[in-house]
């Protein structure tokens, strides 16, 4: 079922579809933008897309290109992390090791990805977003005489120049242009045929709307040259939802699951008063309406863009508009996720037993004690385990099984830590060792190797 305002598919309830349409119609009208296009994905499938336009019967659709600004940074981050997957780069490698002569070569790959290298937010004048990249033909022109505004590694400071360096790093290592590597390693494998560095019809034109009058001015659309990896791309709602599905579910032919997970984990601290946002590796992380969203916002003169993904709810939303300012598209995209999540909550998959029972693992399940703190160990898929406090909050974590018979922590306090089974001389389990912490079957089990020993008189009451 379709309407002149966009595709209204039966996967969503009519009331939900109307609420989504109302949200973007309000954004277009109150934000005074020439056009507004948006779409929602659930469980990897597009379930709604809609549009509004100031020109009657001339609304954009899911195939209409808009400039997406800093959403481009996610693509650049994926290209860099692919090199890490291959072992060509390391996150802790200094830039100088692979791209010498920049003057800021002590910045690490991790710091550049997470905007914690202390680099300036923008390149020197003239305003790079409204001038041709030919004005800055060399990296020295992008970085200027004072490329750093603060010490590296101390805190998050958003930097467009940092992502220019990452794009040049990709080119240096691959021996091909950033655009060519992007097309070959991300766009083609994910079927993103309507994402490009230059506009391809049908595409929207960029406009500035006067702040105090209902009149417009066309914005220039420049080729950003070396700055392209920070904000050059044009895309569509359909293509961006394909990208969202990859960012949520992964695709090993593009990026490993481990690297994808690293992108979604906060990597650098923000200002003390900013409790609702963080930055991972190429991804913004925000808390909205009690749920975590990952994605990015983007802006260039004439365009605004936002893509948010809620992995837990299996939802993603994209919002694009062709105005320099006006509608807060980040809020609109977050609202689209919220509307669907609240109106039609995710239905969990049916419980299914594991494909096989591992007797050795089953023998480890149940209560364990760190001192007097009670924990429970559960077995999950692929011989993994989870260890969580029996009551209340605490240091719980998931662990991935390793071929050597140990497990590696995946999250929380124990991320990266090793969990192993320690046996006594007859092969029986003595205790679990987790980063040197001893977990025993009984609180301070006198028969286990508890550091410091256990008082020989055992537990006692208070004699009065």
TrEMBL record:
<keyword id="KW-0378">Hydrolase</keyword>
<dbReference type="Pfam" id="PF24491">
    <property type="entry name" value="DUF7586"/>
</dbReference>
<feature type="domain" description="Beta-lactamase-related">
    <location>
        <begin position="24"/>
        <end position="340"/>
    </location>
</feature>
<dbReference type="Pfam" id="PF00144">
    <property type="entry name" value="Beta-lactamase"/>
</dbReference>
<dbReference type="InterPro" id="IPR012338">
    <property type="entry name" value="Beta-lactam/transpept-like"/>
</dbReference>
<dbReference type="GO" id="GO:0016787">
    <property type="term" value="F:hydrolase activity"/>
</dbReference>
<dbReference type="InterPro" id="IPR001466">
    <property type="entry name" value="Beta-lactam-related"/>
</dbReference>
<feature type="domain" description="DUF7586">
    <location>
        <begin position="358"/>
        <end position="441"/>
    </location>
</feature>
<dbReference type="InterPro" id="IPR050491">
    <property type="entry name" value="AmpC-like"/>
</dbReference>
<dbReference type="InterPro" id="IPR056008">
    <property type="entry name" value="DUF7586"/>
</dbReference>
<protein>
    <submittedName>
        <fullName>CubicO group peptidase (Beta-lactamase class C family)</fullName>
    </submittedName>
</protein>
């Amino acid at each position: 079922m379709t309407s002149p305002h966009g595709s209204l598919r039966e996967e969503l309830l009519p009331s939900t579809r109307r609420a989504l349409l109302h949200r973007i119609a309000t954004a277009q009208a109150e934000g005074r933008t020439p056009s507004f296009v948006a779409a929602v994905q659930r469980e990897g499938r597009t379930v709604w897309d809609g549009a509004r336009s100031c020109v009657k019967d001339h609304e954009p659709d899911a195939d209409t290109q808009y400039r997406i600004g800093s959403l481009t940074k996610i693509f650049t981050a994926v290209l860099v992390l692919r090199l890490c997957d291959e072992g060509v780069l390391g996150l802790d490698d200094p830039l100088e090791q692979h791209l010498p002569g920049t003057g800021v070569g002590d910045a690490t790959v991790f710091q550049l990805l997470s905007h914690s290298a202390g680099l300036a937010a923008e390149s020197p004048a003239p305003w790079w977003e409204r001038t041709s990249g030919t004005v800055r033909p060399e990296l020295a022109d992008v970085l200027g005489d004072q490329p750093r505004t603060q010490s590296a590694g101390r805190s998050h400071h958003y930097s467009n120049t940092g992502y220019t360096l990452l794009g040049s790093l990709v080119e240096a290592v691959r021996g091909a242009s950033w655009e060519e590597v992007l097309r070959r390693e991300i766009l083609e494998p994910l079927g993103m045929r309507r994402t490009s560095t230059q506009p391809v019809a049908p595409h929207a034109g960029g406009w500035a709307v006067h702040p105090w009058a209902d009149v417009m001015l066309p914005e220039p659309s420049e080729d950003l040259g070396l700055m392209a990896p920070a904000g050059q791309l044009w895309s569509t709602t359909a293509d961006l939802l394909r990208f969202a599905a990859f960012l949520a579910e992964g695709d090993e032919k593009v990026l490993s699951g481990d690297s994808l997970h690293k992108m979604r984990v906060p990597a650098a601290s923000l200002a003390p008063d900013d409790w609702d946002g963080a930055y991972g590796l190429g991804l913004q992380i925000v808390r909205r309406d009690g749920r975590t969203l990952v994605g990015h916002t983007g802006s260039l003169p004439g365009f605004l863009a936002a893509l948010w993904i809620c992995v837990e709810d299996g939802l993603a939303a994209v919002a694009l508009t062709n105005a320099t300012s006006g509608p807060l598209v980040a809020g609109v995209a977050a609202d689209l996720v919220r509307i669907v999540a609240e109106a039609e909550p995710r239905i969990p998959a049916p419980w299914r037993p594991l494909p096989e029972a591992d007797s050795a693992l089953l023998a480890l399940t149940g209560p364990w004690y760190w001192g007097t703190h009670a924990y429970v160990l559960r077995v999950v898929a692929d011989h993994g385990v989870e260890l969580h406090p029996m009551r209340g909050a605490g240091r719980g974590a998931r662990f991935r099984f390793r071929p050597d018979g140990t497990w590696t922590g995946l999250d929380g306090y124990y991320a990266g830590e090793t969990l192993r089974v320690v046996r006594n001389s007859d092969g029986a389990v003595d205790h679990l060792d987790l980063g040197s912490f001893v977990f025993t079957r009984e609180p301070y089990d006198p028969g286990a190797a508890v550091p410091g020993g256990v008082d020989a008189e055992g537990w006692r009451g208070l004699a009065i």
